[in-house]
Task: inverse folding
């Protein structure tokens, strides 16, 4: 058992030392529900035929999977019809990173933190970290760098905390975090854009000044830094953290799904996560048995016990949803679900007005699928957040996780419109009616 465990670790290190997984020739395809075949039946058939299939998305109407040429042949042998999303995933990945600049931190003359070209390409994790340091340096009087701890591989789970006229730690908290799932690159870019708008607008824009005076903001762009680095060095489609499976499972597979690892309703629904360490949704051997989660939920607990949490958002991609509690039970509706739905509608309208993109809103389990050990449920039911959402950013399945860099800015701008609406509405007295 011990030996297997070590071999697993050695295997992962060998990969980390250079071999980048090639997706050349892979296709990402959508299989729609057919007359006598539901999506869950199709999913069962695919999983029975293709071991550890890389599922990208699933709804009531279709399932999206990433397949090697031989896996695609296996899918075709099932007689299932499909639509192609990426004709050659390797080519799409190369396109996505074609403009990625040199390491920002190493340039003698760094770009200013508010240089809009930051949002024209994706960036290395170290450059994001430098960007946050520069952000704090640009607004030193009302911000500080913060951290929820260190990841399995020892990376800082950095973030920024900023405040208005009341000073730090006084007003109710707004907590945003991104990149729980490593491959969802757009999420860090969007939270950075939102953070920049708030800090740069403070003192000059009246509405923004009001937001920053009313709430204490905590923003963490990378809850899963190890996974994110792994997507850039080795496997663009990695989702989980980089922690080996527990020895007790006898598995050599790597990683826990950090958004199935929150210590709340972790075991509430057998369809809400996987117990297989090789699965993309592996929940871990126990609640919060990942360092990334320990740091994150402790941070939520501290905010609950001090300032209280006004608003919590966990930023993901893709499929354009505004998901309210709860994930663990599709017929359990929280007391403020009505308010969460009305808020979701208003935010979705504001997003739509920017570029005509539609977001679906509603309770997470009922509109998507069951998820246990899940962020919004913890934030709402344990963290006492008045408002809690998980937002799935663009797109709806044209590019999926491999969103071209020219769509970063507009994705961020439409969320800024949505967040301005949300921050205007969170304290409106009409919610009491
Ligand atoms: Zn995600």
Result:
């Amino acid at each position: 058992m011990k030996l297997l465990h070590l071999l697993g670790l050695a295997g992962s290190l060998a990969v980390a030392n250079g071999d980048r997984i090639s997706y050349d020739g892979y296709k990402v395809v959508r299989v729609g529900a057919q007359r006598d075949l539901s999506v869950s039946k199709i999913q069962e058939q695919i999983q029975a035929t293709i071991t550890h299939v890389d599922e990208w998305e699933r709804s009531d109407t279709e399932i999206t999977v990433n397949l090697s040429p031989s896996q695609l042949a296996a899918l075709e042998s099932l007689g299932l019809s499909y639509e192609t999303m990426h004709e050659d995933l390797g080519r799409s990945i190369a396109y996505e990173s074609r403009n990625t600049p040199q390491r920002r931190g190493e340039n003698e003359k760094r770009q200013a933190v508010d240089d809009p070209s930051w949002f024209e390409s994706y960036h290395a994790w170290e450059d994001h970290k430098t960007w946050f340091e520069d952000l704090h340096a640009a607004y030193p009087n009302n911000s500080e760098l913060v951290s929820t701890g260190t990841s399995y591989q020892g990376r800082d789970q950095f973030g920024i905390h900023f405040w208005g006229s009341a000073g730090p730690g006084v007003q109710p908290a707004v907590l945003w975090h991104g990149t729980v799932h490593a491959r969802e690159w757009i999420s860090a870019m969007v939270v950075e854009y939102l953070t920049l708008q708030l800090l740069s607008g403070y003192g000059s824009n009246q509405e923004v000044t009001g937001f920053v005076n009313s709430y204490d903001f905590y923003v963490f762009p990378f809850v899963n830094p190890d996974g994110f680095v792994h997507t850039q060095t080795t496997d663009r489609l990695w989702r989980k953290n980089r922690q080996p499976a527990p020895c007790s499972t006898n598995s050599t597979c790597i990683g826990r799904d950090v958004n199935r690892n929150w210590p709340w309703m972790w075991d509430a629904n057998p369809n809400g996560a996987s117990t297989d360490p090789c699965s993309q949704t592996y929940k871990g051997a126990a609640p919060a048995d990942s360092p990334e989660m320990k740091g994150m939920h402790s941070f939520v607990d501290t905010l609950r016990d001090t300032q209280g949490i006004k608003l919590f958002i966990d930023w993901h991609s893709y499929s354009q949803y505004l998901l309210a509690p709860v994930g663990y039970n599709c017929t359990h509706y929280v007391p403020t679900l009505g308010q969460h739905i009305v808020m979701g509608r208003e935010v979705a309208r504001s997003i739509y007005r920017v570029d005509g993109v539609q977001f679906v809103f509603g309770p997470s389990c009922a509109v998507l699928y069951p998820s246990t050990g899940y962020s919004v449920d913890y934030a709402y039911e344990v963290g006492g957040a008045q408002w809690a959402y998980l937002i799935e950013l663009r797109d709806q399945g044209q590019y999926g996780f491999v969103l071209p860099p020219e769509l970063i800015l507009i994705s961020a701008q439409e969320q800024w419109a949505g967040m301005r609406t949300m921050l205007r509405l969170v304290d409106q007295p009409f919610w009491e009616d």
Notes: DSSP finds 13 helices and twelve strands in the chain. The mean pLDDT is 93.
